[in-house]
Amino acid sequence: MAILVDKNSKIVVQGITGREASMVAKHALAYGTKIVAGITPGKEGQSVEGVPVYDTLKRACDKHEINTAVVYVPPAFASDAVMEAIGNRVPLIVIITERIPQQDAIRFLGAANQAKCTIVGPNSVGVITPEDRVKLGAIGGDNPERCFVPGNVGVVSRSGGMTAECAWMVKRAGFGVSTCVSIGGDTFIGSPPKKILGMFEDDPKTKAVVMWGEPGTRYEEDVAEFIKNKGFTKPLIAYISGRFVEEMPEGTVFGHAASIIESGSGKPSNKMAALREAGCHVAENFNDIITILQKVMEK
Amino acid sequence: MIEVDKTEAYRGTARYTEMEGGNIGFFCGGGGGSLLSYDALLRFGGKPANYTEFGGNPPEAKVRGLVKGVLSKPGVKGFYMNLNITNNTQTDIVAKGIIGAFQDLKIDPTKFPAVLRLAGVHDAEARRLCTEARLEYHGDDITMEDTARIIVDKMKKAYPEEAD
């Protein structure tokens, strides 16, 4: 079991002939991930690492069973690609592309909601389920085993790089990960942490979750609320970064676009207090994730 | 705020924000990782002179220029480099840039407290280069938080008179 991706994922890569997309496809295939098709308009008939390329998603869906799309299309055209995936009723769409205009994101997130498609991202580094050797996006690179070992701890992170570091902490603690999700650093994303936790709640494989948080947005506050309402009842270990940002002039951006404190809201210390109040284990130091996890998993 | 080389954005982005005072040059990578790096440094009593975050795959010359900028602020007497593991940042290129900056500014890494923690693509080569250049290198042997403790301890040892 897992969330979002497992051995039943049948994956199409939109924009597969691009430089980065083709390299990432190569790594995923080498890991054991089943990419059934790729889409690049005008390049039908070509193949990338043995994966057939089609002009449109519809043509690929006519030939193959597809339930997962990974979007690698440049920002100006990414929205079209996402809408194409929604139009073809692909249930899971993971958007790797960065710098998609906000109004595009708002539009396709609304459309996805209507069509009941799940979107992860934009600006996600990817999703990985090590037990089934499935990975979407660059996450894990050409050596996923280094940080991602199979196990029972879920990871959800606002930072792509810290998704791997958190999974690494889980490994250092002596455990493994069920699924790791990089939700994306943009202001408007398809799956905020609360949504991912809801999925982890229903996943029998996941016994605890490690969450990486940052300044800005209401994600962590929403998680605290969700937990209070019993939406997520498993142990949650959270680290909220960027405490120093509270001392900086309001509106300055450090880190991701969404990590901005405005009108006093979005402060890490408030997030930590809210999560603690809801019964979460909030790590004061990043290294504490290891000791807290060991204690929690002992029970 | 200094915007660094927008024309080559696809080859790596960077941001430099000068802080008031401080004696540790801060050069960290990853949006999230940099936040952690700064928090941890403050928590252990370090005094960063700046906040600099870089990402992607900056070419060696860009890294060199950035690090020289970081090290050139008056009062900077230490160097702290922390990077979360990534899938595309070539750590050997980053290491070369840092080593080059130290050389250009004629900074002796055996006397100037410095620590680098970078893991990922080509990190065996990064380790080799740093060891050769006598710059303290760490990779997957430590967590990102450990790096902060290391530089603060090195600063205390090098400048005992400045300890609070």
Task: Please tell me about this protein's structure.
The complex is a heterodimer of chains A (299) and B (164). Chain A has helices at 19-31, 57-63, 75-87, 102-115, 160-172, 193-201, 219-228, 268-277, 288-298, and strands spanning 11-14, 35-39, 47-48, 51-54, 68-71, 92-95, 118-120, 126-129, 134-136, 150-157, 177-182, 208-213, 236-240, 281-282. With 299 residues, chain A is an alpha/beta fold. In chain A, the strands form two sheets. Chain A has a seven-stranded mixed sheet. In chain A, strands 9-8-11-10-12-13-14 form a seven-stranded mixed sheet, with helices on both faces. In chain A, helix 3 (75-87) packs parallel to helix 4 (102-115) and helix 7 runs parallel beside helix 8. Chain A starts with 10 loop residues before the first strand and ends with a helix. Chain B is α/β, with parallel strands linked by helices and 164 residues long. Chain B is 40% helix and 20% strand. Chain B has helices at 31-43, 60-72, 91-104, 123-132, 144-158, and strands at 2-3, 13-18, 24-29, 50-55, 78-83, 114-117, 137-138. Chain B has a seven-stranded mixed sheet with strand order 1-2-4-3-5-6-7, with helices on both faces. In chain B, helix 4 links the parallel strand 6 (114-117) and strand 7. The longest helix of chain B has 15 residues, at 144-158. Chain B is globular, with a radius of gyration of 14 Å. The chains are: A alpha/beta (299), B alpha/beta (164). The A-B interface holds A 20, 125, 138-142, 146-147, 157-162, 164-165, 168-169, 172, 185, 212, 214-215, 239, 241-245, 252, 254-256, 259, 285-287 and B 17, 29-36, 38-40, 42-43, 51, 53, 84-88, 120-121, 140, 143-146.
